[in-house]
Amino acid sequence: MQYSPSCQTDSAGKSESARLKINSVTRAVAVLACAVGLTACSSKPETADIQKDLAEAYACPVIELSDVKKADGAATDGKLYDVSFTHTVSIKGGADAAAKLFSEWAYLEAQVQPTQIALDKALFDADVRAAQGQLPGGRNADPEVRRLTQAKEQLASRLASLMPCETIEAVTRLQVMRTAAEEAAKSGQSQIAVPVAIKVRGTGRMGKAESGWHFAGMPAFSTVEIVTANATYPRFKAEVAVNTSVPSEARRLVGRVRAGNTDSCLEVSASRDAKCYALPGQPELASRIFSACQDGDMCAITGQFDDKNEKLIQFSKAEKVAP
Q1: pLDDT tens digits, one per residue of 305-317
Q2: Which terminus of the chain faces fewer neighbouring Cβ atoms within 10 Å, N or C?
Q3: pLDDT in tens, 140-187
Q4: Phi and psi at residue 132, in whole multiples of 5°?
Q5: Domain of 255: which CATH number?
Q6: How many domains does the chain have?
């Protein structure tokens, strides 16, 4: 079969055209791949890389991160880069929201330790009564133990709901602002300068990975400025806490007498805990106690006991009991 020259020319033209189109597409793909590679594997970290890691460090629904800026940087080797940067952490909702957050947070947190101390005392007292057969249902049957356990749980729940931040950096920045708010609140005025944002400077070392640049460890942060705005600072009425130093009503405790050369005590055990209540040193009272119980005896003493300071402060009666 013979081909005409015109057919051969048309065929050659189409082949050349196709080849040029393929080369063009290939070059476009290569350029795109190169661009993607440069973005993902930049030779040094940029502001976007820093912001991505800071967003994770400040992950908390009550604050927001802004104004992240890379200030300086220097390569240390092929895969590590030291950077310095600035950023701002703000309270969502502005001054009114910040005032409520800091005031209620301080109010609730101030109740944590007294509540725990009161609960520990109630548990010990309940264990003593249970050991002496006065509380058949054990410590959990004691109304005061149940009340304080519930109060502790409610307090923890309210704190977690109010201040849900969990990362160390978010909590640290908020604590710095809360301290400033508490200092301003000492003026006693209803309107105070409430911290609404904190400007922070940071330095850290970043490493290059397939997914981009990331901090190789926790950066070092320092406060540049605390930004404030005037707002009404709520004043929560302090709840009446259990005063563990106040003497309890007269009660009967059974324990072992421990007599010493200069002082003596009644050792009361409950579960794995023990308290040794100091006995009065006045000769008259000591004589009444030791006429009934000697060193090493199991003794039932009735009176008022100071649980916090572990001492008998008002004596009524002492009697020896069977071990």
Answers
A1: 888 888 888 888 8
A2: N
A3: 888 999 999 999 999 999 999 999 998 999 999 999 999 999 999 999
A4: -95, 10
A5: 2.40.50
A6: 3
In this predicted model, what pLDDT tens digit does every residue of 217-266 receive, in sequence order?
889 999 999 999 999 999 887 654 444 444 456 788 888 999 887 789 99
Which residues touch 176 (CB under 8 Å, ≥6 apart)?
Answer: 198, 223, 226
In this structure, are 218 and 98 located in the same domain? yes
Give the number of other CB atoms < 10 A from CB of residue 266: 27
Please compute, for residue 255, the number of CA atoms within 13 A of its CA located in the half-sphere on the CB side: 26
Distance CA 212, CA 45 (A): 8
What are the tokens at 300? 């039932």
Per the structure, the complete domain to which residue 124 belongs is given by: 94-232
d(CA 174, CA 166): 11
> Which residue blocks in 237-322 are alpha helix, DSSP H?
283-292
Residues 86, 95: Cα–Cα separation, whole Å: 22
| Structural domain includes residue 159 | yes
Whether the Cβ atoms of residue 173 and residue 198 lie closer than 8 Å to each other: yes
* Tally of CB atoms within 10 A around 5: 7
Evaluate whether residue 268 is within a structural domain: yes
Q: Can you tell me the distance from the alpha carbon of 288 to that of 119, in angstroms, rounded to the nearest whole number?
A: 34
pLDDT of residue 248: 52
pTM for the model: 0.65
The verdict on residue 47 lying in a domain is no
Residue carrying the six token digits 């004691």: 142
Q: What angle do CA 248, 117, 184 make, to 5 degrees?
A: 115
Half-sphere exposure of 28 (CA within 13 A, CB side): 6
75: tokens are 């390569």
